[in-house]
Amino acid sequence: MKIISKKLITLLILRGGMPSALAEIPLHIEDLMTDKGQVTLDATFSYANRNQQGVAIGSPLIVQTAPTSFTAIPTRVGETRTDTDISVATLGLRYGLTKNTELYGRSSYLWNGSRSTHFSETSSNQSNYFSDIWLGLNYRFLKDGETPALLGFVEVAVVERLKENSSKAKSWMLGATSYSVIDPVVLSFTAAYRFNQERINDTQRYKPGNFLLLNPSLAFAVNDRITLTGGAQWLNRQPDRINGSSQSFRRTTTDLIFGVAYGLSDTTSLAFSVTTNASGSSGSSARINLLHAFDKTPIPTSQPTLKKGNAT
């Protein structure tokens, strides 16, 4: 029997957008998309710790809730040293429109606790709030065969929480994932670009920096239930702008990602992954993901079902 089952495979490739159909979850290799008419629950809990030292200028902390999903936490101006713990709960649903098209949405709630010192004065701050709502569309261009598979996605932030208020439809993400199965290994590569438009935060014109993400990954199927993965992520982020003025400089970071996923059944899976910073100052994070596909509701036929003895 093949190690990579054609009925069930765990591909720790990517989550969020089309990636949410690929990452950290066991999948049917011949049908990575959610089946037409089927609904899939996608729940994730993420934890990150950040330590900043020096003079801060109010640039937000970026917490990664999935390989292509990020949540921004506002910071204060003038902090000299800060240690921050962030937890984010994300709940999403995916729906199969056709065999090659999938509609999805997700929402996040955030808990933030920070401790800081400024000129020997110590302070702490606790907050929790609704973070954002995203809607997106996945599309499969090519299946894995003579050429590697190609899948694309586009998503928009319907609502995003800012420090003073909120914005609507101001952030967009566009990306694609290509993968190839070489039993018992899956090689993949994801590229995504996030475009942020200017929005009003209190009385200021605020524009978060756009960023480009590149993520090569390798997944090894130990058996038809367990998959181990490893990969790297490179992020190139432009500086934020307030009232048209740049608040910093372009930054790049490289992270290493390791994970394991377990298929509880043909419809439910659990995955755990850790991201650690190799260069830059993005700290480390961990996340656990639960995916469950609901059974499709049978479609009634136009012909009535005749019971035995009732036929005329």
| Portion in strands | over 45%
- The residue-averaged pLDDT reads 79
Q: Give start-end ranges of low-pLDDT stretches.
A: 1-31, 299-312
CATH class type = Mainly Beta
Strand order of the largest sheet: 3-6-7-8-9-11-12-15-16-19-20-21
Structural class: mainly beta
Q: Assign an overall shape.
A: globular
Number of helices: 0
Describe this structure in words.
By secondary structure, the chain is mainly β. The protein has a single domain (9-293), classed as monomeric porin ompg (Porin, Beta Barrel), CATH 2.40.160.40. The protein has no helices and 21 strands. It has a twelve-stranded antiparallel beta barrel with strand order 3-6-7-8-9-11-12-15-16-19-20-21. A four-stranded antiparallel β-sheet has the order 13-14-17-18, with no helix packed on it. The radius of gyration is 22 Å and the shape is globular. The N and C termini lie far apart (50 Å). Residues 1-31 and 299-312 have low confidence and may be disordered.
Features:
21 strands, Porin, disordered C terminus, 312 residues, mainly beta, 12-stranded antiparallel beta barrel, single chain
Give the helices and strands, then pairings.
Layout lengths: L8 E3 L13 E3 L11 E15 L7 E6 L2 E5 L7 E16 L4 E18 L2 E22 L6 E13 L4 E2 L3 E12 L2 E12 L2 E3 L2 E4 L3 E11 L4 E12 L3 E2 L2 E2 L4 E13 L4 E12 L4 E10 L19
Antiparallel strand pairs: 1-2, 3-6, 3-21, 4-5, 6-7, 7-8, 8-9, 9-10, 9-11, 11-12, 12-15, 13-14, 14-17, 15-16, 16-19, 17-18, 19-20, 20-21
